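Hi R.,

As promised on Friday, here is the backbone we talked about, encoded as structure tokens. Could you run it through your design pipeline when you get a chance and send me back a sequence?
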């Protein structure tokens, strides 16, 4: 069952930097399903014809076990009509971990079939569907034996289209000392497992990336039941080890009592992690760089909840900043250069009455950043009453928030995935009404188009609502802002986050600001007002 709605939910638009640019809803498709036991890996893919593929999880209708889970694959056409649906739906727990479109017009779903007491152990599983009809082409188990308990966490493809799978291997009955990492190669055409390689004891793989000359794997080597050392390893195309290095992905990087489990490989093979810090790693002990998300914000804790990279290696992240004095949170969106330098940072808060607002999902196009936040509202007794989506459209040039809106679609609206393809932004969430029970649970898939035009300056560059010049600067700067902006004060921080120029007033008119004698270098100018926080990198050069 699936329904299509055209703007029958409420859209609350807030003041934006430039009202001529907005996100307009093309369609919203809903798919009711039972609540699943596993949520974190929902995603979508879009083909060249704008058909949309939804990969996720739903409660199993077959299993008598509470919270049993089925792996779900759906295909919608370019106007939101459901074309086909498929499930791993049986008496087992089925865990989804990845879904991709293949080079030969197939749809590949990866995960593993869980086990129940008295049943066979879990089995790493791949299923390939026909993209046009949804018919199953083949189903393959990485280890075709019940004496092995295996999980499949990630897949990637070599240039020929064949599949590399990455996961965890245990002898069965499961023994702690038998936990190992494996890499497997599987034929895209037939699903035949071409080879498997099993590696060090107490080591398992959670991410893999096929590069031009090697395969890179990230995972953990277990020290005991509760601890493991993060490992980056390289193997050749036959699965033979090239190198293995531990990396410093520990408490000193991600903050007290928190271990950062969020990571991905960018297109160049760097491991990018995000949490209290955004970091980039090579196969070496130390990170290439790390950026503290709350840098330059006194009495503040910050965390990036998700991140993506562009073709140049710039990192875009969204999350939140929490004022430790008031415990109030604001949405955070930032952009870092390939070298880890802050290019811009924007924050926004829907209402001072809302204590929790967190950026959860992000996608980028060549010009824009699309982000979705989760807004929490509590009743007078402090109980969670409502969860809403808040969407943002930002300029990739300077982080200006060009458009934002609040979507109130149900009592609980939870964001899960953002995507850009073929000139459209897509967003996947789940909604439910706790008082209505499991029958109210559903996927919500949104397709947005850009509408309106931004002012341009020169060769099609976006005209920023805030301008700061000269940059590089000498002993002064000029700040101008468009009438829509309401930034009232500013402050200046050095590259280490230390305050070097305390808060001073600004307004919408031309504002020349005298700078103190400062060492040459890169600084962060922070503007504050009703529109949140706007940041801009400022270079000081005394020769100017």
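Update: got your reply. Pasting your designed sequence below so it's all in one thread:
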């Amino acid at each position: 069952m699936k329904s299509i709605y055209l703007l029958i939910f409420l859209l609350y638009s807030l003041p934006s930097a430039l009202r001529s640019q907005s996100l307009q809803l093309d369609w919203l498709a809903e798919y009711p399903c039972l609540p699943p036991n596993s949520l974190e890996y929902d995603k979508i893919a879009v083909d060249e014809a704008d058909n949309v593929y939804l990969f996720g999880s739903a409660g199993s209708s077959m299993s008598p076990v509470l919270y049993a889970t089925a792996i779900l694959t759906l295909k919608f056409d370019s106007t939101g009509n459901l074309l086909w649906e498929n499930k791993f739906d049986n008496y087992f727990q089925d865990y989804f971990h990845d879904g991709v479109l293949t080079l030969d017009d197939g749809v590949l779903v990866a995960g593993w079939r869980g086990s129940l007491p008295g049943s066979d152990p879990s089995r790493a599983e791949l299923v390939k569907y026909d993209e046009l009809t949804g018919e199953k082409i083949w189903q393959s188990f990485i280890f075709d034996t019940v004496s092995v308990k295996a999980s499949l966490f990630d897949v990637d493809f070599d240039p020929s289209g064949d599949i590399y799978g990455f996961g965890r291997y245990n002898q069965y009955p499961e023994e702690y000392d038998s936990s190992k990492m494996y890499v497997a190669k599987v034929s895209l055409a037939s699903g035949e497992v071409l080879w498997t390689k099993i590696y060090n004891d107490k080591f398992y793989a959670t991410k893999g990336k096929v590069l031009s000359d090697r395969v890179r794997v990230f995972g953990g080597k277990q020290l005991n039941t509760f601890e493991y050392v993060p490992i980056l390893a390289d193997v050749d195309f036959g699965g033979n080890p090239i190198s293995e290095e531990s990396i410093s992905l520990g408490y000193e990087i991600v903050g007290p009592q928190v271990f950062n489990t969020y990571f991905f490989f960018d297109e160049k093979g760097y491991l990018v992690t995000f949490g209290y810090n955004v970091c980039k790693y090579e196969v070496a002990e130390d990170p290439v760089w790390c950026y503290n998300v709350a840098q330059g914000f006194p009495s503040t804790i910050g965390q990036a909840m998700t991140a993506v990279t562009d073709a140049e290696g710039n990192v875009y992240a969204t999350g939140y900043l929490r004022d430790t004095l008031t415990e109030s949170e604001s949405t955070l969106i930032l952009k870092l250069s390939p070298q880890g330098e802050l290019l811009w940072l924007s924050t926004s808060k829907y209402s001072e009455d809302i204590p929790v607002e967190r950026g959860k999902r992000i996608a980028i196009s060549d010009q824009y950043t699309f982000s979705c936040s989760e807004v929490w509202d509590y009743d007078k007794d402090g109980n969670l009453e409502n969860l809403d989506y808040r969407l943002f459209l930002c300029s990739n040039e300077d982080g200006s928030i060009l458009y934002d809106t609040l979507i109130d679609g149900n009592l609980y609206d939870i964001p899960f995935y953002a995507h850009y393809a073929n000139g459209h932004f897509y967003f996947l969430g789940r909604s439910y009404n706790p008082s209505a029970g499991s029958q109210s649970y559903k996927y919500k898939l949104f397709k947005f188009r850009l509408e309106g035009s931004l002012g341009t300056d020169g060769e099609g560059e976006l005209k920023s609502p805030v301008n700061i010049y000269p940059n590089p600067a000498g002993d002064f700067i000029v700040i101008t802002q468009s009438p829509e902006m309401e930034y009232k004060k500013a402050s200046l921080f050095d590259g280490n986050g230390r305050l070097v120029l305390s808060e001073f007033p600004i307004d919408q008119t031309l504002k020349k600001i005298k700078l103190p004698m400062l060492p040459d270098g890169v600084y962060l100018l922070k503007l504050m007002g009703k529109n949140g926080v706007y940041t801009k990198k400022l270079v000081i050069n005394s020769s100017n």
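One thing I noticed while checking it: Residues 37 and 67 are 5 Å apart (CA to CA).

Thanks again,
M.
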